[in-house]
Amino acid sequence: MIVEAIAGMTFMGLIVFAIYYYIQNQTFNFLIPLTFGVMCLFGLIKNTKHLLNKPKETMHWLKIHIGNMLGSYIGAITAFLVN
Length: 83
Hints:
This protein has helices at residues 2-25, 31-52, 60-82. The chain is mainly α.
């Protein structure tokens, strides 16, 4: 649970940074850290619920792991294509 707490603080930090950046600069550059902060925070909540409420399916962890790996792959390919 310590890893989840550290991750949650990091994602909240991204959200606070985005809000602070918007207040200081009044530009739309705050959208990227805000989006990543909110998406990752929702993912953290979802993963923590799965951790606390163990599902009855067998190999449930493998399905979640493959989904997370595919999501990371899509994000990495998108980042490389944009640059």
